[in-house]
TrEMBL record:
The gene is SLCO2B1. One of its GO terms (molecular function) is bile acid transmembrane transporter activity. This is Solute carrier organic anion transporter family member. GO terms for cellular component: apical plasma membrane; basolateral plasma membrane. It comes from the Eukaryota. The lineage of its organism: Eukaryota, Metazoa, Chordata, Craniata, Vertebrata. It is a multi-pass membrane protein. It is found in: Cell membrane.
C-alpha cells in the first residue's frame, strides 16, 4: 500500500505564507510581563542555591577525602588509592551523560506537547528534552549513597603503622640483639613526629575567628612555594579546559555535526568519560609501579600534556561547513538583501520571531520558516513507521518544489565519531597528569599544612577555572552566531552559527588552556631538577664533614646537623 497523503493546514498556521488579513495574530509579547521576568529570576535563584548545596556536599569527598586517604594510606599505596578515587568520581559525569541521553528523548513536558497542535520530533530544532528529570534521579541516588558515611570511624587504621609493626616483629624474631642497636634510632622518628604533628594538634583548638586571622598568613606562606603555585596554575588550566568541554561539548557536537542532543550526550558518555577514567587510573598505577619521585611525576605530567597538545591539532580541521540559510548565509550576488527572494514574500506576513525550519532537498538551502519559503500549504505523508511533513505551493523555492520540515541533514555527520575519538584520546593523556600533580602538592607541603593546601588548591580551581571558564567559552561561542532569536525585543537564543568560526574558537580556547598547562609543568620540572641538583651537591659536600665529625665526637655522640 502506497503512502497516504493528508492535508493538515490547521497545524501551525502561523508558519505558513498567509495574507496579512488572514494571518494569526502574533502573541509573542504576551509573556513579557514583569511578573514573568520575576518568576524566571526566582527560578535562577533556586538553581544557585542548589549548586551551592551541591558544592558543600562534595567537600567531604574532595578535597577532604584526598587528604584523608593520603594520611591513613601507606606512601606507596596513596597514588593508587587517589587514582581510584578520581576515576570513580569521573564515573558520575559519564553515567550522567548517558542518563541525560535517555531523558532528552522525552519532551520537557512529559505528558503533553506544545500548545497550538505542534507535533515535534527529537530531530526538530525546537525540541526541548526533559532536562529536569535527571536531577531528581541523581538527587535520590546521592541521598542513598550518603548513608554509609554515618558508619565510618573517626580514625582509620594507618597502613604505615601496620607495616612498621610487622617490621619490628620480624626484627625481634630474627635477631634480638638488633633491638638494642635500634633503640636510639627509634626515638628520633617519634621526636620528629611530635614536631610535625604539633600544629595538627593545635589546629582543632582554633576558633573560627582565630582561623580567619591565621588564614591569610598561611595562604601567603603556601603560595610562596613555587612548586605548589605552578602545579595549581597548571591544574587551573586543565580545569578550565574540562569546564568548557563539560558545559559546551554536547552543544558543539550538536551544532557542528547536525546531530541530536540525545546522540551527542550518548557519545560523550560512552567515549570521553571512560577514556578519562582510564587516564586517571593509568597515571596512578605508573606513579606506584615506577616509584616516581617529584622529578618523575613532573616529567610524566609534562609528557602527558605534550602528547595531549599534539593530538589536539587535527581537531581544527575536522568539522562540517555551515548550512546554507536563505537570507542569512545564502545570498545571490544579483539581489542581496534580508531575504533570498524579497519579492516572493510581499504577500506573506511572516512572523519576525518565528522558527520552524524547512529544507529544500534539491538545493540543500534551509529556510527559517515555511513562510520565508513562500509556502502556503502543509502536507503530511504517512509511512509505516513515521510520518514526514512537507510544505507545498512555495513561491520562493526554485521551480516551486516542496520543502521538508526540519533542518537540512549534514553531509559529514559521520565525522563526529573520529572527532570525539581524538577528543577522548587527548582527555586520557591529559588525565595522566591528575594523580602525579596531586602527589606533587601532597609531598611538597608540610604534613600539618596538607589539608589546608588541598583546600586552597580547590578554592583556586573553583574561583579561577570552574566559575569563569564556562562564561569565557560561552562568550566565545556567542561571537560566532549569525542569527539570533528575539524574545521581548531582546536577544534570546542563537539559531544558527558559523561552523568554521565556532570550531576554530572553541578548539582554540581548549588549545590555549592546554598550552598554559604545558608551560606550567615545564617550569615545575625545571625547578624540581634544579632543587634535586642542589640537594645532591649539598649531600656530596656534607658527607665528608659528617664522617669527620663522627670520628672526632666518637660513637656515643651524634652530630648536631647531620640531616640534609
Amino acid at each position: 500500500m502506497g503512502p497516504r497523503i493528508e492535508d493538515m493546514p490547521q497545524d501551525f498556521k502561523a508558519s505558513l505564507c498567509l495574507p496579512t488579513t488572514s494571518a494569526p495574530a502574533a502573541h509573542s509579547n504576551g509573556n513579557c510581563s514583569s511578573y514573568t521576568e520575576t518568576r524566571h529570576l526566582s527560578v535562577v535563584g533556586i538553581m544557585f542555591v542548589a549548586q551551592t548545596l551541591l558544592g558543600v556536599g562534595g567537600v567531604p569527598i574532595q578535597p577532604f577525602g584526598i587528604s584523608y586517604i593520603d594520611d591513613f594510606a601507606h606512601n606507596s599505596n596513596s597514588p593508587l588509592y587517589l587514582g581510584i578515587l578520581f576515576a570513580v568520581t569521573m564515573m558520575g559525569p559519564g553515567l550522567a551523560f548517558g542518563l541525560g541521553s535517555l531523558m532528552l528523548r522525552l519532551y520537557v513536558d512529559i505528558n503533553q506537547m506544545p500548545e497550538g497542535g505542534i507535533s515535534l520530533t527529537i530531530k526538530d530544532p525546537r525540541w526541548v528534552g526533559a532536562w529536569w528529570l535527571g536531577f531528581l534521579i541523581a538527587a535520590g541516588s546521592v541521598a542513598l549513597a550518603a548513608i554509609p558515611y554515618f558508619f565510618f570511624p573517626k580514625e582509620m587504621p594507618k597502613e604505615k603503622h601496620e607495616l612498621q609493626f610487622r617490621r619490628k616483629v620480624l626484627a625481634v624474631t630474627d635477631s634480638p640483639a638488633r633491638k638494642d642497636k635500634d633503640s636510639p634510632s627509634k626515638q628520633s622518628p617519634g621526636e620528629s613526629t611530635k614536631k610535625q604533628d604539633g600544629l595538627v594538634q593545635i589546629a582543632p583548638n582554633l576558633t573560627v575567628i582565630q582561623f580567619i586571622k591565621v588564614f591569610p598568613r598561611v595562604l601567603l606562606q603556601t603560595l610562596r612555594h613555587p612548586i605548589f603555585l605552578l602545579v595549581v596554575l597548571s591544574q587551573v588550566c586543565l580545569s578550565s579546559m574540562a569546564a568548557g568541554m563539560a558545559t559546551f561539548l554536547p552543544k558543539f557536537l550538536e551544532r557542528q555535526f547536525s546531530i541530536t542532543a540525545s546522540y551527542a550526550n550518548l557519545l560523550i558518555g560512552c567515549l570521553s568519560f571512560p577514556s578519562v577514567i582510564v587516564g586517571i587510573v593509568v597515571g596512578g598505577v605508573l606513579v606506584k609501579r615506577l616509584h616516581l619521585g617529584p622529578v618523575g611525576c613532573g616529567a610524566l605530567c609534562l609528557l602527558g600534556m605534550l602528547l595531549c597538545l599534539f593530538f589536539s591539532l587535527p581537531l581544527f580541521f575536522i568539522g562540517c561547513p555551515s548550512h546554507q540559510i536563505a537570507g542569512i548565509t545564502h545570498q545571490t550576488s544579483a539581489q542581496p538583501g534580508p531575504e533570498l527572494f524579497p519579492s516572493c514574500m510581499e504577500v506573506c506576513s511572516c512572523p519576525s520571531d518565528g522558527f520552524n525550519p524547512v529544507c529544500d532537498p534539491s538545493t540543500r538551502v534551509e529556510y527559517i520558516t515555511p513562510c520565508h519559503a513562500g509556502c502556503s500549504r502543509q502536507v503530511v505523508q504517512d509511512a509505516l513507521d513515521k510520518s514526514q511533513v512537507f510544505y507545498t505551493n512555495c513561491s520562493c523555492v526554485a521551480e516551486g518544489n516542496p520543502v521538508m520540515a526540519g533542518s537540512c541533514d549534514s553531509t559529514c555527520s559521520h565525522l563526529v565519531v573520529p572527532f570525539l575519538l581524538l577528543v577522548s584520546l587527548g582527555s586520557a593523556l591529559a588525565c595522566l597528569t591528575h594523580t602525579p600533580s596531586f602527589m606533587l602538592i601532597l609531598r611538597g607541603v608540610k604534613k600539618e599544612d596538607k589539608t589546608l593546601a588541598v583546600g586552597i588548591q580547590f578554592m583556586f580551581l573553583r574561583i579561577l577555572a570552574w566559575m569563569p571558564s564556562p562564561v569565557i567559552h560561552g562568550s566565545a561561542i556567542d561571537t560566532t552566531c549569525v542569527h539570533w532569536a528575539l524574545s521581548c525585543g531582546r536577544r534570546a537564543v542563537c539559531r544558527y552559527y558559523n561552523n568554521d568560526l565556532l570550531r576554530n574558537r572553541f578548539i582554540g580556547l581548549q588549545f590555549f588552556f592546554k598550552t598554559g598547562s604545558v608551560i606550567c609543568f615545564a617550569l615545575v620540572l625545571a625547578i624540581l631538577r634544579q632543587q634535586d641538583k642542589e640537594a645532591r651537591t649539598k649531600e656530596s659536600r656534607s658527607s665528608p664533614a659528617v664522617a669527620q665529625q663522627l670520628l672526632v665526637s666518637g660513637p656515643g655522640k651524634k652530630p648536631e646537623d647531620s640531616r640534609v
